[in-house]
Fold these 4 entries.
Entry 1:
Amino acid sequence: MSILIKPIITEKATNDSELHNRYAFVVAKKANKLEIKGAVEAAYGVSILSVKTLNYPIKRNTKFTKKGLVTGIKSGYKKAIIQLAEGESIDFYNNL
């Protein structure tokens, strides 16, 4: 089971990484904070101060269209916010 699924690279996450040295990742739903910390340290070779996790629920929506009732679903996921030590950084764009 892979702990880290992908990094979150949005405007808000990029601003948070530049100002506060915090990085966001989508992680496996069953991963705990210790497993996430170990996976990030092993993958990027950085030292971590703290890990915060957020669970996002499944979102369902319904629309009334000409074709009738249309339903959709957006799957839930778990997000981890990693606080790195002073002077540490992660470069997501070095492999391009």
Entry 2:
Amino acid sequence: MMAPELIEAIPKSGQMGIVHLGLGAFHRAHQAVYLERYRQRSGDGEWGVCSANLRSSVGLVDGLRAAGHRYHVAEYADSENITLREIGVIEETLFSGRDGAGNWSRDREVLLARMASADTRVVTLTVTEKGYFLNPASGELKVDDPMIIGDIASPQQPRTAPGLLVEALAQRREAGIAPFTVLSCDNMPDNGKRTRQAVVQLAEHRDAELASWIASEVAFPCSMVDRIVPAMTDADFERLAALGISDSNAVVCEAFTQWVVEDTFSQGRPDWEAEGVEMVADVAPFETMKLRMLNGSHSLLAYIGALAGIETVYDGINHVELRALLRRYMLEEAAPTLEMPEGIDLDAYADSLLARFANDSLRHRLQQIAMDGSQKLPQRWLSGAKERSAAGQTSPCVALGMAAWIRYTAGHDLQGNSHRVDDPLAKRFAELHQTYGRDPSALVAAYLAMDDVVPSALAQDEAFAQAVLAAYQALSHGGLSEALAAL
């Protein structure tokens, strides 16, 4: 294989029209790449990015600062076809979480100043589902969460993404500056509407007039984002080193990328259309399609595969029975719940997803996908299963997925190997397994009774509950083969 040509970043502009909350790998491999490509084509220097980490380590922030805020993205069509890009659109990185001593970083004030500045016209977010502090089942703000309680008590020292948005918008309103547009890029249904819900509800605890102003004046467009961006491994860094790239901040991803955005921006935006961004009037059909078919399949493979000791998506998709399960789930349970615009071929979309999952260059770990299941599964599986239940239809693939998720949260696979349960409700899961672990019927009932995860209408569907229990027992007694055979 010949080394791919490197597409270098253009010189820094110094102008920051965008503030981003959530300086993670996905942001750097998706939105930042679109912006870099836009600047390469147009020469428009008005849309540099100030990107902030809110809660995770300061290491990435410092690493990018040391590198002059430049890093590399390796886009793999497969192991032989690679595009290397140097990204320079991020002009500043900030850390607004707690330092090693437990004190809140001084960068928080810098971040708020950036967000309150008239130069900032768009604030984008990739903070994951849990970063909005919304009940996954009801969509209401978690006013009993300690972080939200802190933001209510001290709104001018915000701890959360909603809190930062409220405080920055309050400062702009006080200064007579028009509000920025808030663009969520997280995998949530109606992500713009849900972001608006979190921000407005939090603002209501501070000032009813401020909340009303945000509700009426701030644009919260919805968006759908799609690109597989695995967590970096030592093997990834070694592959890049073989191509002449030594960069501790580098990201690897698939070549495929998609971004669908509702075109409601109050303060202008980059001309993204030229880079393939689909600016539409209604994102919802695309968003739901991706959540239920791509993300739902990922989660199904993650929990079932991880229990069987399968490490990556690539390994899982090459398991004949699991590949068949994913296709069945997509076409028989997910696709029938979707209402798509004319011309969208869901059979072809399912086949394209299976092909993407089979990309031999990506080491997308199932344990990474399995994180935060309590926050993801309501929109990936359960909303569709609820619709099918209301129509008198069954969802056996989702029932198996729920059984696998319940079993996964015990903290060990079917061979007894331990794994970390990385979820905001991990403590509750441990208590449920401790209390009901010897009684599968009671354990499944306790999980389905969690109304902050499982819609009550679905939990009350006796056929669905029995299907989850039967799948749980099949997994526990006969492993993966028996559970799949039972379908």
Entry 3:
Amino acid sequence: MKLVAELSMYPLNEQYIPPIQEFIDRLNSYKNIKVTTSATSTIVSGEYLPTMQLLAEEMQRSHEKVGQAIFVCKFLNGDKMSTDI
């Protein structure tokens, strides 16, 4: 089963761009997912369980490094998507 996740990260500090870019760069290092970044969010798609696992690990990593950060996430069943993301 495929997963499509749309994520936005909001670090709660004045220097918010570097932690966001670092998070996106780490996501891009995974070969088993597709990452598409826009001005307001990042879309990640891949096999359901491995993708959820890596998102959990990377969000935890960001929280440990940054402290407070808000993640807004939407999760979709990628098998039911009418187009390939």
Entry 4:
Amino acid sequence: MTSSQEELLPGTRRALLHRLAVAQSEGRAPSMVAAVVRDGRVVWHGARSSVDGEVPDENVQYRIGSITKTFTAVLVLRLRDEGLLDLGDRLEKHLPGTSAGEATVAELLAHTSGLAAESPAPWWERSPGSLRPELSDVLGDHPFLHPSGRRFHYSNPGYTLLGALVERLRGAPWEDVLRREVLEPLGLNRTSGQPSAPHAGGWAVHPWADVLLPEPAEDLGRMAPAGQLWSTTGDLARFAVFLARGDERVLSAETVREMRAPAAPAEAADLADGASYGLGLQVQQRDGRMLVGHSGSLPGFLANLTLGVADDVAAVVLANCTSGPFLSMVGADLVRIVAEAEPRIPEPWRPLPEADPSVLELAGQWYWGTYAFGLRLTSGGGVSLEPLSGKGRGARFRANGDGTWTGLEGYYAGELLAPVRRPDGSLSHLDLGSFVFTRQPYEEAADVPGGVDPEGWRGIG
């Protein structure tokens, strides 16, 4: 990944700096640093500091808190892709003996296991991890607050269990596995479990006075997979590129798309806010665009990574204060500024390299009952089926190699689309999960369930 400060227009760069400066000033952060990525490259970096002459750069470490969870989720999905576990497996199958064994791997990843949000007292973020040496110390006597799978309830102990799962199946400490399987392949050389100079110090800012108090930087011990990591804007920018595109050395593009898809039932307040959760990633609708990423906080530090997938723009924002600035809003605004000021230029239209006549025959207008749809050939041998009214159930389908296609999204995700031919080889209709699509509404010659009235269409006199 290369870095070029000249990629953005001067007005865009000034707008980004202004947003960062306002956030640092109004949020009263001792320092704040940010980076913006577009098309796989860092195109802007900015920093503000309360100390003259000490402006952090892209190599200064900050603690990133719960962004660590996304790294842990990557490790778990690697295990899934290797066939060592299934997301539907109960934890007990791979990590026996915990009091949370009934939760599935997917529920732990999506925070739908029903586990408590925090470990038993004392507050784990501000106390030594040595106080909780065993998983039983993290879970406590009553680990479940809700039925598994019924609701989203953010759980730090849940990700502690996922880290222990990684250790059990890999036979090595979580951080060693992370370094070998994710950090080194992606070139994240400034991401680590312990701070490495240069790094920022963590501060608490008094809510009613402009004075500071140093925050302790505790080793989280068993709970490290939920929030231990330190990183930089440079490393997190590279990680954002990975979350957008995948990397076959770590996870495929298909698997990172799976991570980005909502996987948790949203509560009423979350629905109103457009918020959901995927597999180790927060998902949110804001300003008309889908944003994915994660926020993090530990005493003395705030962090945010925000990715606008459709715009191929990502932002990373780090600050060394316990509270004050809302970095998720800052990250979303940095993405919006670039996406709106310099919209993505689409690739030139190009014709398909070839088209199978039997597939080309399917293109055009189809009817499910009286609903009109259009089928279009797409790249890679796929097709799309969209309602001509612009409203209703539509989807893209991938080719299966046998003349059928499988739905990729929405109502038809996983459903089979197949052309049905008459004995003479002519095309009769399309079958989509038992729905019959015909060339004309309720076409008499097609196999429409329930049949078609032999008197046909009529008026009412």
